[in-house]
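BUG: 3D viewer hangs when loading the predicted structure for this chain

Environment: internal workstation, default settings.
Expected: structure renders.
Actual: progress bar stalls at 90%.

Input used:
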Amino acid sequence: MMEWVTVHVLEKYNFWIAMLIIIIGLTATIVKENLVKKLIGLSIFQTAFFLWVVSLGDVGRNILTTWGLKTQTPPILWTEAAEKGYIYANPLPHVLMLTGIVVSAATTAVALAIVVRIYQKYGTIEEDEIIQKEMEFEREGVT
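Structure tokens produced before the viewer hung:
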């Protein structure tokens, strides 16, 4: 039993932490009524996803093979590292996540700009109040 816990839980602690943070961010994005809090939840979700993907770049321990997944040959092959069993990181996930971070920052900036415009139009950033005011506008014929 202890061996199973060691192999499936303790060796993959970064995956479990990333999944926990993903759940927290997704919950905040769905449950919160305040639009800024929703954006903070979205940012937490995105950051946790980046952590998870970068964690997949670990080549030396073959964490994915313990889950039954096939791993490919690393893009940089260093024969001494392979012979001595060094643990090193695959650079590809890191490079992809740099792009993801830039897209995430741009998405957050645009979303915050939209929240500012919503506040200017409705005078609030609470979702239920915005829906109520939008229904009032529809009844009055205001666009």
